[in-house]
Specification:
Layout lengths: L17 E9 L2 H4 L3 H16 L1 E10 L9 H12 L6 E3 L1
Parallel strand pairs: 1-2, 1-3
């Protein structure tokens, strides 16, 4: 059976994919040596999969202090969201 997936006005009736970016971090270089970052990333990716979110980008902070917002990946995240405006619906941390 064929189904018409276009509205009478010619637009697609398929839902738009919900976009998400992931941010994970650890505080110290020592923590990067265990499974903390991969575990966090896997949990965030599984959450996105369950919710039906498309992961657009991943940002991983490898041992920078949370005492300041001057963190490399944290600074990249809002820039990415600005340059992909309209595509990023959620930030998953």
């Amino acid at each position: 059976m064929l189904t018409n997936l276009r509205s009478p006005h010619g637009k697609s009736m398929l839902p738009n994919m919900v976009g998400a970016v992931i941010y994970v971090r650890v505080s110290t270089k020592e923590q990067t040596e265990n499974l903390s970052l991969p575990t966090q990333l896997r949990a965030c990716e599984e959450y996105c999969r369950r919710e039906g979110y498309e992961v657009l980008e991943r940002f991983a902070e490898h041992g920078e202090s949370a005492k300041t917002t001057d963190r490399t990946e944290l600074q990249k995240l809002p820039n990415y969201c600005r340059t992909h405006k309209g595509k990023v619906d959620f930030v998953v941390v």
